[in-house]
Specification:
- This protein has 328 residues and is an alpha/beta fold.
- The chain folds into 2 domains: 180 residues, Glycogen Phosphorylase B (Rossmann fold); 133 residues, Rossmann fold, CATH 3.40.50.2000.
- Helix content is 36%, strand content 20%.
- Helix 10 links the parallel strand 12 and strand 13.
- The longest helix is centred in the first third of the chain and has 16 residues.
- The termini are close together.
Length: 328
């Protein structure tokens, strides 16, 4: 039996989750990996058979997706060619983690595709939503990577097909500490903007992981570092708190470790606005505008409380359920 798992390469959360899922799949069946997208920084610790341009959202430096650059980097004919030529017929099971080429290839070639992603749970009717609905954002979540069967992950289990977050083994096994620094990952803001805000919160050590500098450097009370799996894990596991965008994997792991958490949803990313609404309902600090947030961040540093959820490890169970349902 052969499995193809296709992973979205916009951002690092999908790839981080794949480091847990792919080895388990390879214990169960022969498994090939496909990654599409241009915005991820992490190197995967296993072979990737297909690397495609895909259709990525490009992070800007002003707090959100850069629409102009996103449109400019779209390669529509390449995207269509990949859809038509991807050999999905060679596989008994196709799994897509919000990866569009494989999902559309299966749709066009009339092949079943199983969706396994956080995005499959975001629009669930029990999931908290922001007051203002982004209709275009909803269309993206529904149509970007269409699948035949959906399984999802969310901060709480909302339904029988929605599961707790996949927490990486490195995080589960780690002995967490609360040292004297805060870890920051805000890839859609420039280093200059981050420095302007965080330098106004004195007597705090900030360890910022940035997409915008190839080398490590110190600026006042801020240590800027390039994104690195190992360095980020070390900082994250030992931090007092984490300041990040309202993605899914990093906030979920912060909750698992019992870290203070503050999130800022990325502009033009409806999924992140929905995540922020969910986290806010759970009592997590959420900010709508980083540029005007000095007082809120200072208050969070001084008064914020850690919040912990002992998410069970159900990753193998989820995969076994998918394989059993699809007769693998």
């Amino acid at each position: 039996m052969k499995i193809l798992i296709a992973i979205q390469g916009t951002g690092n959360g999908h790839l981080a989750r794949a480091t847990e899922i792919v080895p388990l799949l390879r214990e169960m069946a022969e498994t090939d990996v496909l990654v599409s997208g241009t915005q991820a920084d992490l190197k995967l610790p296993f072979e990737v058979k297909y690397r495609l341009h895909g259709m990525s959202f490009v992070f800007g430096t002003n707090g959100g997706v850069d629409i102009r650059k996103t449109i400019a980097q779209i390669r529509i004919f390449r995207f269509l060619k990949d859809i038509l030529t991807l050999p999905v017929h060679k596989y008994n099971l196709i799994i897509s983690d919000f990866e569009p080429v494989t999902a559309w290839a299966c749709k066009v070639q009339r092949k079943k595709c199983v969706g396994l992603s956080h995005q499959n749970a975001v629009l669930h009717h029990h999931a908290p939503k922001p007051f203002k609905t982004d209709w275009f954002g909803k269309v993206i979540l529904k149509r970007y990577a269409p699948v035949s069967l959906k399984y999802g992950f969310h901060f709480n289990q909302l339904d029988s097909f929605i599961f707790p977050p996949v927490i990486r083994s490195d995080v589960r096994k780690a002995k967490t500490t609360n040292n004297d620094h805060y870890t920051v990952y805000l890839p859609s803001f420039s280093n200059e903007e981050i420095a302007r805000i965080l330098m106004a919160v004195p007597n705090v050590k900030w360890e910022v992981f940035s997409k915008h500098n190839p080398e490590t450097y110190q600026s006042g009370n801020i240590l800027f570092q390039p994104v690195s799996f190992e360095k980020f894990n070390e900082s994250f596991i030992g931090c007092k708190g984490i300041l990040c965008n309202a993605g899914f994997e990093t906030p979920a792991e912060a909750l698992y470790m019992g870290k203070k958490l503050c999130v800022i949803p990325m502009k033009n990313q409806y999924e992140q606005v929905c995540n922020a609404a969910f986290l806010s309902e759970m009592g997590i600090t959420t900010l709508s505008d980083f540029k005007e947030s000095v007082h809120e961040i200072r208050y969070w540093v001084e008064n914020g409380k850690p919040f912990q959820i002992q998410y069970p490890d159900r990753t193998k169970e989820i995969l076994e359920k998918i394989l059993l349902r699809n007769e693998i």
